[in-house]
Amino acid sequence: MAFPFESLLVYKKSLSFVEKTDKILSSLKGKASSSLLDQYYRAALSIPLNIAEGYGRWHSKDRLHFLRIAKGSIFEIIPIIQILSKKRMVEEEIYSGIYRDLEELVKMLTNLAKSWDKN
Predict the structure, then answer these.
(1) Dist. CA 110–CA 116, nearest whole Å
(2) 88 conformational bin, left if phi > 0, alpha if psi -120 to 50, beta if neither
(3) Model's pTM, two decimal places?
């Protein structure tokens, strides 16, 4: 039996983003500060965790609170990848792909929040 949040496309994409993050961060170990990489990973992991936790809440205000946290985690990753890009630690193609993924996740979270806010 699957939990209902597992069928959400935004949840699936956020899990995929964590997988991509893991690969990218593995290639950056020893090049970038471990605290920066740890912050990046924790923020990425926070996205699916908060989507799942929000889905499990009964009241729409509680649900929306967790989606806001997930969205905040995305906004936390943006300056990290910009720093890594400016230091030439990630290639432009990788940076652009991450940025596109984050834009897509924000849009999806915003739409999910709108649908939950109506309930």
Answers:
(1) 10
(2) left
(3) 0.94
* 3-class SS letters over the chain: CCCHHHHCHHHHHHHHHHHHHHHHHHHHECCECHHHHHHHHHHHHHHHHHHHHHHCCCCHHHHHHHHHHHHHHHHHHHHHHHHHHHCCCCCHHHHHHHHHHHHHHHHHHHHHHHHHHCC
The percentage of residues in the chain with a pLDDT greater than 90, rounded to a whole number, is: 84
Q: In this predicted structure, what is the pLDDT of residue 2?
A: 87
pLDDT, average across residues 56-61? 87
Letter for the amino acid at 55? Y
Which residue, chain included where needed, has tokens 């009964």?
58
Question: Does residue 60 contact residue 117 with C-beta atoms inside 8 Å?
Answer: yes
